[in-house]
Design a protein that fits this description.
mainly alpha; 7 helices; 152 residues
Length: 152
């Protein structure tokens, strides 16, 4: 049981770190990318942040319901991981061009992507880590602390 607990601890810590790193890498330069590369004003940038947050608020209860139904099955985590692999191409080939040509459509598509993957997806990752920690008796805060420490 100790080996299983250690394996789960490290695998969940690495996944949480990768998730937080991807979120940080994508969103830390988001405002700079919007303003300098795409030429989007501060007002429209605020609109994009609001749209992302609204989608996340709407989707978090759905993710919570699905997460409770799935239990310890990793389906949502696999979906999030797959979508995380598409963050770069999405920003370059879909989101950026849409924001420059059709801002409202780009805002909707981007809010769905960013709101689902990053803002609402964080609850899925934390919830799964908490569920696993209850089953194998380890403290999930230590995993989170390690990820945040590596993240800094």
């Amino acid at each position: 049981m100790i080996n299983l607990a250690k394996r789960n601890y490290w695998s969940l810590s690495i996944f949480n770190f990768a998730y937080l790193f991807t979120w940080s890498a994508a969103m830390s330069f988001f405002v700079i990318w919007l303003g300098q590369s795409l030429g989007i004003s501060e007002t429209y940038t605020g609109f994009l942040y609001a749209a992302n947050s609204i989608v996340a608020l709407v989707m978090q209860p759905l993710f919570g319901y699905l997460s409770d139904k799935l239990g310890l099955r990793k389906h949502l985590l696999y979906i999030l991981f797959t979508i995380l692999l598409l963050v770069g191409p999405f920003f370059i080939y879909v989101y950026g061009p849409l924001l420059q040509t059709q801002f409202v459509i780009g805002a909707i598509v981007g809010a769905l992507f960013i709101g689902l993957v990053f803002n609402a997806g964080n609850g899925v990752v934390d919830s799964y880590i908490d569920k696993v920690s209850c089953c194998i008796s380890y403290v999930p805060q230590s995993s989170g602390f390690l990820c945040y420490l590596w993240w800094v």
